[in-house]
């Protein structure tokens, strides 16, 4: 098993109960999560030694974040305390034809307001195999774009593999801003989660696949040509029948070859938030464990499918449980 | 935006939680609603000035009704207090193959027991664009049949458009009784919600469409011939796959033309009660706003579809939210 | 209506709420049930006089079991108290692709530890039409295999029809052990619930149907040849699309003829536990009432389908409600 | 143990959760109860054979009543079905200084509307030791006053002891009406629950105790002189500090002697409804078991005190549990 | 009845359930409230025409605020939408010896960030009898100190009585800052809620009462001398036995006379938040209705006591209910 | 801060909700806890490095235990997996006069069934300052008595201080058995939690204090004479007014001096389970930190008092929070 650092913002999510609008909700479900924290928890569940680095306020909410992470045996020695607030957001849970709706209230959070790298980086990256971060962090502020680049360079220097999830959020920055930044950072990246839309709208890939090419494979190939350091591309393809029923397929590009998982019919979906992070966690686990590519993408997609069956941002299944799920097929009681 | 009066009974609904029978329920959900109140709330949500006229007992339940309506900015100046009780009913929520089951306990309610029109009608209908009521009210008692006709005549005299939803309830009166009454009232009606079954079983339309005619359009046309004052017919077609999954299409007949919405796949259904009222609210909004017929039926059916995704009798979506839903398609998170 | 005795273990089931893993659950739903108790409750709901014989500890949990049975008018005069504990198990509820998971904690229960038949059997079987038990009981211990045979012989001697549900549980005994025992007991049985897998893996039927034979009918026929006392075979065929969606068909073999119900699409499933017992209850009701075979299998499968729509182990529908469900088709509100 | 019949109305109570007003409650707790049913359940819990006679509608609510009673092993063979509705009431739960508030909605219930005694009385009273009823029943209608007298006379003729709880409800009839009726019925009564207020305001006792007399004992003595058939008087004295804290003392007059229990400090009170019925159940148990008077009043008051610690109308404690509570004193964990 | 404007910030409060720490809470109760909104709702409940002026974001939380106010018939025509966020805070509910704990997250709210008076003040104050605001508003920013003074001057010019609740919050500004501001504003105030601590620590009253003077009356008198425009002073005295049990007494100074209510024993307390606002609402109602001073302080303190018995920030009792509570004394069921 | 090992059984507790009996509970609260685990969590919350050693089954319940401990940063490297089951017990929560009731179902647990010390003791006790265990462990089996003595001897040899909480459980062993064992182990103990009843009934102290001696101090002195290695005695005195209201005082004997805390009025009590463990945690923290004796007992009793205000077995307050509570007094909101 490997040693991993993930770094990013972690927030408090308030969700409505299914079938209730936010305006009528007298109680809200509280979950803590963030893309990088979620990946970290997945990897800890799969047996890796994981450090999550972030910053939270020095109050009960910051303490709740810490306890949430510790519960899954994620190391919180680099979870700084200070600053003004924990970022929050409100999720009006979708159902059937009605999509979920999000209200962000994350401005001014302890993490977003950081303007220096307050961690001891030599300690943070000491003997670390993999450093994972996402495009949400540089989207928080111009300052964080600089800091993110610094982090990646330092991690690389310390010998870590760099894993980066593009994770574009249109509410935080424009496609032009994101594209500009991505072109800088992707030269330092080893494993990259990005999809067709990212290739076209952020990275400016203008070539198009022929009718009989696999589109995803095509764009992975194009991105590889622009960013030759990247060894692995991966992302999911999701067909959204409704907020309650999606089809999910995982895709992976490694060493010039393209792999796809079987399609998972997610119906009904309990909680979609964190599904992509569970997938990333699965892929990174496979890479750390040097699994076969097909096994990696099968495992990762199964992990993502399982995430959709539980409330909360983080995947709660061990390596053994994911493998048993893959082996068993769908829906039978074992008794 | 227009000024609207809706008038009818409003009741307390007790619903079981999904998967529980009434006999085993230790707690019940309490919702307030009635066909005309629900239409009123929809129209208020869409920005119209709405008065709901009714009568409730002078106790905490009557007060709860008042607060429920006020919450949506429905004017309650014509919500009288007095009489003996608030009508109630029990809904054992359906699921999958098992249909919902209803126990009515509405006899003797403050509204049903009214035997004069206790409102100042000249004040009630002052500068009102639209008066909406339904066939549930005359079904309550012979007295209410007389009063309903009086109301409609007075409203018409005051210059209101008359909107009438047939809303046949077999537990309240026979088809013969309903048919007899409908034939009287429909001569005063401008906008009428009625379906094929109403045409055949209540209004005695015996003609039948040819194989290549649209049945709904055919019956609208037949009813138009009998009741020439009616300018608009509308209703929904519902295919019931199960209590949890229905397909819904809206139909509209206006100025000799027939319009249909796209089909909405409602799956899963959170709460079906009030779905038809949300549809009526949408149609009436479109008529008040003089929208194009196709836009009206699309809007109204979208509103009805959204209603099925929330608990409670009333639609809780603004005009902007319905339009955004129409534009966005199904089930994606916006973040 | 008949007089029936069912006998077996009854346990406390702890279930998670949908979408929660056991490890994260701060509250668990408590249901009492067992295959034979569930069948007993179904038969009591259908109007039969039912005695449930078992043994529970002399504490609040034993008392809860008693009250649970009494609620459905099941006679508890033969529910002994004593011994050490009530058996329990934990059900992590499945959803979509993720199957339910069970942790048994039933060792050492008051019932399992019995080593003599502590009931007065002449009183227990006095004027009883039907004695029902299942293969779970002999699986509890070698002692219980002996006791089960004794019970069946005595019941038969007292003039009861013997109903036996194979109900193989791989966590309790091996296929070889079960097969050995079954071969002894099935010579005393009149009505037997067993499926293809039981025939092949437990009873060692090695013949195989031809391509155009109905497999289920074929194996019923084979078992009939081995165990000629058995008059009736029945079981369900279940296609598991996911933990939330199954297709269910009932099958019945009686007097040399094979019958099948229509297929029920169970979607969504609220609680699958006890679905088979509801089916058995329906079949036994039909046999006691001497209904036509096709009516029996239709009724029983409808009862099983309804069970899947309610929480808890036991079916909660009366004969009239099952019949109305059969007549009404799927999912419409009656109002 | 004895055989007991209790007879009266049973209703559905909707209670708010503590700290919520009725107007703001989105869910309500559902409990079934009535004075005579509650006494019956207490006596069944104490080991007696109890029949509860009443009438409920033939729907899910009537069935819920039946199951509620059966749960406690109360015989429901004389629970008739028919009529229009189950009476209901709404209880806004009190807390601290704020008293509970009640809205009755019981008019027109299946029981209240009865106008003949639909039970086979010779069967109902066959070998019955004790017939218990209350002043709520004759308060329902003039017809029920006649029927109540008939019942008591027939029961007496059949050899039952008659137990009557005055239970005056000012919302159902006036003091004058009640007094007039009581003077008729009390000549047929053996055991009577009545307090000082009943003596003064309903029975017109004008004598007053001297300063050093026990008031309760004084009025019992006065009532005995007017109604010489009554062997036993009993009632509770309650000091209401707040809705959450009461002091309770039981009083008993038997064979010319007056007895009092120790004072119970009820703090906090979970649910006060049914406290008096639990007390009556305790007294009647003591009388049936021919316990010593002091033991009777201690037992009955302990039973009443325990009732205040559980939700719902009915006492849920066995004879052994009440006795253990009496022996143990207050509030220690046994482990 | 009068016409009243209240103006201030309204926030979303997240409360834990009793007995749960914030760090362990998986769901939080959501209540909307603010000192001035709460006073407004109380006055609306007492029958006055109330406008609440504030600013909330244009999202579902802002809409929830609007619906919350409308429910109580508070006019929201001056509830502006815009800005970045709704202020929130977290309340870890206290119990027994453990006090409640608060985490504020209100910086940057739509209201706090206002830097001009965006309302049409001539319209806002048109024919208004009373304008109520509190010391929380100027504490939000230096800008708001200026705006607050402007508001008060304009309101006074428009002929409104000015009501000001000092409501000092040490987490928002220092005593010196508050004192400096108060000395400016109190010259424009007619009715002032302030207590001994305010007089001593904010207004710099250095005189001290003699041993036989009533301290509260003494300080009211001192403040009157400094701010001669103030006609009425009022505040509560609270003895905190624990978070669950307080004693509350209301005090009032008017026309040179001092009045006190009886002491209310609040035990247990359901929710203390908004207790002071309910008191202010009661006093202002009494002043608007020109009640006798003793009646005013009795009514206001009763209203405050009742507030402590319900969840949420706002008092939910009508004038009639408060009066009935005053008349009835403590804790008896009315049935 | 110190390094601490605690060792013992950890169980799953099922609690009823307040005001519900076990027999009527449809859901139960699940908490994990055990005396030694609870002490460990307290010490971890106070900043110490804590290892909890135990054994749990290799299933979801064992995993839930692990996550529960990790959440509080308790090291679970010595939490073995294996064996048959997790011990459970049922707590019917007490209220007012009604005491809590417990049903144990702990026989055959993975921990209780251990018959060798499966941990590497040299690793377990490496550089550990304090080893804490309780009298519950040796009460589980004769085998465990031997193992407990072995553990203590080895720990002592490794240089740990030994802390032992007598924690007598009459349902597990007799006073004679306990006394016999205690006399062996107490010669190896440094810090001992034992009270008067332990001294008299288990250790056979027959001397009695004079009227003007402090009884607790007297018995501590007596025990010191018998077990001279013990440096510190401590326990709480609890006056049980009711299940909802207790008075609690902490007592401490150290270096020949006796200390008492102030009395804490615990009213209402949310959850009493673990109160004693929170106290032990506080004392051991004080000893590890070499606080002054009076400060130790004040801190420990405050910690115990706080525990009674939260659900669950374990104290959830940091050192800073306990100190702030001590400083602040009772029940005021800080805002």
From TrEMBL, chains A, B, C, D, E, F:
SUPFAM superfamilies: Ribokinase-like. Residues 1-207, 269-315 form the Carbohydrate kinase PfkB domain. The keyword Lipid biosynthesis does not apply. The keyword Kinase applies. It holds the Pfam family PfkB. CDD domains: KdgK (cd01166). Gene3D superfamilies: 3.40.1190.20. InterPro entries: Carb_kinase_PfkB-like, PfkB_dom, Ribokinase-like. Keywords: Kinase, Transferase. Belongs to the carbohydrate kinase PfkB family. This is 2-dehydro-3-deoxygluconokinase. It comes from Enterococcus wangshanyuanii. The gene is kdgK.
């Amino acid at each position: 098993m490997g040693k991993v650092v993930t770094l990013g913002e972690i927030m408090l999510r308030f969700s409505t109960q299914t079938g209730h609008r936010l305006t009528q909700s007298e109680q809200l479900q509280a979950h803590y999560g963030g893309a990088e924290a979620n990946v970290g928890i997945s990897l800890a569940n799969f047996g890796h030694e994981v450090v999550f680095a972030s910053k939270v306020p020095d109050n009960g909410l910051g303490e709740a974040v810490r306890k949430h992470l510790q519960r899954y045996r994620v190391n919180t020695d680099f979870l700084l305390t200070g600053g003004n607030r924990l970022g929050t957001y409100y999720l009006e849970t979708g159902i059937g034809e009605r999509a979920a709706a999000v209200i962000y209230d994350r401005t001014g959070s302890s993490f977003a307001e950081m303007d220096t790298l307050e961690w001891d980086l030599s300690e943070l990256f000491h003997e670390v195999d993999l450093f994972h971060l996402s495009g949400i962090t540089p989207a928080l502020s111009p300052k964080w774009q600089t800091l993110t680049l610094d982090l990646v360079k330092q991690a690389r220097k310390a010998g870590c593999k760099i894993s980066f999830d593009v994770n574009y959020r249109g509410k935080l920055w424009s496609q032009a801003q994101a594209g500009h930044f991505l072109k800088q950072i992707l030269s330092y990246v080893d494993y990259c989660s990005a999809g067709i839309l990212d290739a076209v709208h952020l990275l400016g890939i203008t070539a198009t696949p022929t009718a009989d090419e696999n589109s995803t494979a095509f764009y992975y190939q194009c991105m590889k040509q622009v960013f030759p350091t990247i060894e692995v591309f991966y992302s999911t393809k999701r067909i959204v029948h409704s907020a309650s029923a999606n089809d999910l397929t995982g895709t992976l590009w490694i060493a010039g070859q393209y792999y796809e998982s079987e399609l998972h019919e997610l119906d009904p979906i309990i909680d979609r938030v964190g599904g992509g992070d569970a997938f990333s966690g699965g892929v990174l686990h496979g890479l750390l464990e040097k699994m076969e590519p097909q096994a990696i993408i099968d495992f990762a997609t199964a992990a993502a499918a399982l995430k959709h069956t539980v409330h909360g941002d983080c995947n709660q299944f061990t390596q053994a449980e994911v493998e048993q799920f893959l082996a068993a097929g769908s829906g039978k009681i074992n008794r």
